[in-house]
Design brief:
TPR-like_helical_dom_sf; 6-stranded mixed beta sheet; Rossmann fold; alpha+beta; 3-stranded antiparallel beta sheet; about 675 residues
């Protein structure tokens, strides 16, 4: 469920009149920017230095860019005047250098125009002010430190080139400083880029535009760095973009041959082989599936009366009843029911069509009403059109005076009886054909899934695959493979998007094979939820519930998903319906309910639901957070110690990172509770 299966709009406030160190700590709240948009950048130091919107006709001094770079890279964003003067000028005396610095500060303030808070100077030091928050280098640093992939990506895209690219008038001391800082920034840039690629592709569904934007920045900064190509190939593979991975590798080969006359390193070739090998794991396309038999077709013949015939009104009522039965049978998925409007026109001999070429019926249901000593009886029989064999016959009370009152009940009873007979006959045929082996493998896999440890998950997947090898059209086996894949992804810590992506492919193939099976849509929704594709997930959960509205298992999974979407009240209503249908529920029901109550801030209620579970191990996080919020510090610390014994070296942030919430704030309740218990 949400918290037990333990891991992630960008706008932030930047102060206008506060020190930049306060800004980096998120304390400012006066100026609000969307970081990384070109319109937000006032001063560029990465690449060619530039004041984007200069005030009036005043030119920003070149030494001013050097001054800003020195301050932006200083640990406290502040440096002594003497140190700045020594780095910027080669004067014979210190006094002359300090004089030059005073003049530079005046020119920077004048050139800055509206940015009067760009610098903050006193008699001994100079620092960056709040206005410096719109320097691209500062925003890159904010994104790098934020821990948010979105912020980090936007900051990364500001890195247009080397620090102060093309600058010429420098002192030897400044040149040395610039060389060291450029190397450090390059290292930080490529480290950030590699981390961003991993985060973007964590769920296998990164935006192609984002990946290509990172690739353009990486290769523009250093087109000969093989490690960049390697990171990009791996990212494209994790995202399922295999053609792009191959194209990048060919681009690398051409560059290395042109520049150095050498082939790619073995490590890079190995990454490409691993990426391309994953293509063989994809489920086969539906068009390549083994031919499936068409669904059997059931036709209802026009009912008749045995003498003495009923009146015309009764005859019309009888035909309406049979039509209602046929319509009721239309909800079954194992066979199709032909429209009575057509089948009533078919001539037949005791239920066997005289000409079956148009309707192509496999089974027919024919009948008549006959009088008995006390009441009239509706006699129905089902025949196999292939050999004329009577497969089933039944009698039902047909008393006109009571028929209107019992009309719907009778139609349901007859439809259920006919459906059972058709399906039983189909099962007998399947046994004779040997297809029952596929079903047995499917049942073996289901039994293994009752315990979700990694070895049993993989054994279950092998059983489902054996079922598919025998019957590629078994939609539920494809859906179960999707289930084993997303559970394995969770068991492995959510770090392999290939597994999750293949799970989605299997689920969508299952839904394509049998769009009427609710479980196939349930798996599509479950996998998409962990891919953070929330709109698609919500659509699929709703579709699954519409197809199976009274399945307790479906309801509890939908309840958990609704909580993740931020709809805790709707989730709780679904949970209550699920428990009403399955009052002696297995542990994962209470697990889901407790997760929902945490979101509703009902911590005592969540603890009560956890008490219904046979084992507390899967809800230690929930119990820790709930007791912490209730002020039960000793209990919270005890549960947190138990959790860390099971998962060593796990901190509160990593304990909640897999939770697939639509809104990041939804994680905060549990995260706050875990942090309270930790201290």
């Amino acid at each position: 469920m949400t918290w037990a299966k333990s891991p992630i709009c960008l706008s932030f406030a930047l102060a206008k009149h506060h020190h930049l160190s306060q800004i980096l700590n998120g304390l400012g709240n006066t100026r609000v920017y969307r970081m990384g948009l070109e319109s937000d950048i006032e001063i560029r130091l990465l690449g060619l230095p530039e004041l984007v919107r200069p005030g009036g006709a005043v030119i920003f001094p070149a030494k001013g860019f050097q001054l800003l770079a020195l301050l932006a890279r200083a640990p406290s964003k502040r440096l002594p005047r003497k140190e700045l003067a020594a780095l910027l000028w080669d004067n014979d005396t210190e006094a002359a250098a300090l004089g030059n610095l005073r003049q530079l500060l005046a020119r920077v303030r004048k050139a800055g125009g509206a940015h009067d808070d760009l610098l903050d100077a006193d008699t001994k030091t100079v620092a960056l002010g709040g206005g410096a928050a719109l320097i691209d280098l500062s925003l890159f640093e904010i994104g790098y430190r934020s821990g948010s992939p979105e912020q980090a990506l936007r900051g990364l895209l500001l890195f247009r080139g080397e620090l102060l690219e093309g600058i010429t008038e420098t002192t030897d001391a400044f040149s040395h400083w610039l060389m060291v800082e450029r190397a450090a920034l390059r290292e930080r840039f490529f480290s950030a880029a590699s981390s961003i690629l991993i985060e973007l592709t964590r769920f296998g569904r990164a935006s192609e535009q984002d990946l290509r934007a990172v690739a353009d920045r990486m290769l523009a900064l250093d087109p000969e760095r093989e490690a960049s190509y390697r990171s990009l190939i791996e990212a494209y593979g994790r995202n399922g973009m295999h053609e792009e991975a191959e194209r990048t590798y060919r681009q690398l080969i051409a560059m290395l041959e042109r520049e150095f006359g050498v082939p790619p390193q073995p490590e890079t070739a190995a990454v490409l082989r691993r990426v391309l090998a994953s293509r063989g794991h994809q489920p086969g396309d539906l068009a390549q599936a083994k031919p499936q038999k068409a669904q059997p077709r059931v036709a209802f013949m026009a009912p008749t009366w045995i003498m003495p015939a009923g009146d015309p009104g009764q005859s019309a009522l009888l035909r309406a009843l049979v039509e209602d039965i046929a319509n009721e049978l239309a909800r079954y998925r194992s066979f199709v029911t032909l429209a009575p409007h057509s089948s009533f026109k078919l001539a037949h001999d005791s239920g066997v069509p005289l000409d079956n070429s148009v309707l192509r019926a496999d089974y027919t249901v024919s009948g008549f009403v006959k009088p008995s000593e006390r009441e009239q009886l509706l006699v129905l029989r089902m025949a196999d059109c292939q050999n004329g064999e009577i497969l089933w016959a039944g009698e039902f009370s047909f008393r006109p005076e009571e028929l209107v009152r019992s009309f719907r009940l009778l139609s349901l009873q007859v439809a259920s009886t006919v459906a059972n007979s058709v399906e039983r006959h189909l099962l007998d045929v399947m046994r004779r054909d040997g297809n029952n082996q596929a079903y047995l493998h499917y049942l073996d896999g289901q039994e293994l899934l009752k315990n979700s440890d990694l070895p049993r998950l993989r054994r279950a997947r092998r059983s489902f695959q054996q079922a598919i090898d025998l019957n590629n059209g078994m939609a539920l086996a494809h859906a179960r493979i999707a289930q084993t894949l997303y559970l394995e992804w969770l068991a492995l810590g959510g770090n392999d998007p290939e597994i999750l992506r293949h799970g989605r492919e299997s689920a969508e193939l299952a839904a394509k094979i049998d769009p009427g099976a609710g479980f196939t849509h349930l798996m599509c929704g479950s996998v998409a939820l962990y891919q953070r594709d929330f709109d698609y997930s919500a659509e699929k959960f709703a579709e699954a519930e519409a197809l199976s509205p009274n399945s307790a298992d479906f309801l509890v999974q939908h309840a958990d998903a609704l909580s993740c979407f931020g709809e805790e009240n709707a989730g709780w209503a679904h949970f209550e319906r699920a428990v009403d249908l399955n009052p002696f529920a297995p542990d994962h029901y209470w697990w889901a309910g407790a997760s929902i109550l945490v979101q509703k801030k009902d911590f005592a209620g969540a603890i009560e639901l956890c008490a219904k579970m046979a084992s507390e191990n899967s809800v230690l996080r929930i119990l820790t957070a709930c007791h912490a919020h209730l002020g039960n510090r000793s209990e919270a610390r005890a549960y947190w110690r138990r959790f860390q014994e099971l998962y060593p070296d796990t901190d509160p942030a990593s304990a909640v990172k897999l939770a697939p919430f639509k809104h990041e704030s939804s994680k905060q309740t549990v995260l706050d509770g875990l942090r309270m218990a930790e201290h």
